[in-house]
Protein: SET1B methyltransferase
Organism: Ceuthmochares aereus
Amino acid sequence: TSFSTPKKKKRDDGMREHVTGCARSEGYYKIDKKDKLKYLNNSRAFAEEPPADTQVRTCLLLTAGRRSEQRRLLSSFTGSCDSDLLKFNQLKFRKKKLKFCKSHIHDWGLFAMEPIAADEMVIEYVGQNIRQVIADMREKRYEDEGIGSSYMFRVDHDTIIDATKCGNFARFINHSCNPNCYAKVITVESQKKIVIYSKQHINVNEEITYDYKFPIEDVKIPCLCGSENCRGTLN
């Protein structure tokens, strides 16, 4: 059983040559540190420097992806101008500083904590999108539960946004016959949204208001805005 062990040879690249032709059949052996470092350095060089054609292909794919995303965003704003798209993106990533506190008009109100220029998006009216039938049922249920105010905003003939129990600060905006803001319906990715725009320059600590434009009804709701041209009623 005693036979001479063949001498281990090294290849031209410095790595050990396997006599049996398979590394697994020769068992565990220790690799020299110099050989290991040489192999690792060569691997890193190949990994850090991809071929030139691969870099160009990756750059073209990224550029095409960005252009496709821009076209998708622009096409999503049907019926609105490009400025609305830019303003809505700014409103998402940089929200206006607002606060709600007691108002001299009615109960709670929304106030600006920073100067707001004219014709800017102030805040989006957020809530649940419901149908007219559900809105009628919820309005009766809110009355039975003792909820004095229901924060429902009509988007179109079929859709209403209900922010009574789930919404944001926009539901605290009070009505005024001489408002400093107005509401506008815009379409984003095939979905209609209500955004409050500034009608004029708004100073710090100034209350944000808009015209509710309630339909005319026999039972009148008194208006307490206190403006010079106050109509006296909301409807």
